[in-house]
Amino acid sequence: MKDISRQIARKSVEAIVEKQGLDPVVLEVRELTDIADYFIIASGRTDRQVEAIREAILENLKEAGFRPLGVEGKRGGEWILMDYGAAIIHIFTPETRNYYRLESLWISAPLYDAENFLKDS
Question: How far apart are CA 83 and CA 17, in angstroms?
């Protein structure tokens, strides 16, 4: 599962960067929880950009042969959650991301910015 989860995370981050998402980070949570290996967190400037990022991730992962187990918050969402099993993707508007501060909930997880994650993958 480790290689698959990293591939899902990488394709997701590539789509976020392509759509100019704000502050994408990857949290490696596999040692902290059984629900996923990675959490990918990013923001879009507006709800429309959040939706564009969602669409780009869906397309990137579909082309790689991956389908989500579930997608929540699809239309007009300030927070979209995409569950790919091994990786869970959170896309927020900046205000919503600041409110929930998921990164701080998983403070003990290794955190990678997009550039370093893509370089190391």
Answer: 19
CB count in 10 Å sphere of residue 121: 14
| pLDDT tens digits along 69-109 | 999 986 667 899 999 999 999 999 999 999 999 999 999 99
In a domain, 33, yes or no: yes
Its domain, for residue 42, covers: 2-116
> Within a domain: residue 44?
yes
Amino acid 75: pLDDT: 64
- Rama region for 93: left / alpha / beta (φ>0; ψ in -120 to 50; rest): beta
Q: What is the pLDDT of residues 14-40, one digit of tens each?
A: 999 999 999 999 999 999 999 999 999
121 in any annotated domain: no
CA–CA separation, 24 and 42 (whole Å) = 4
13 with 23: CB under 8 angstroms?
no
What pLDDT, on the 0 to 100 scale, is given for residue 77?
Answer: 77
Domain harbouring 15, CATH code: 3.30.460.10
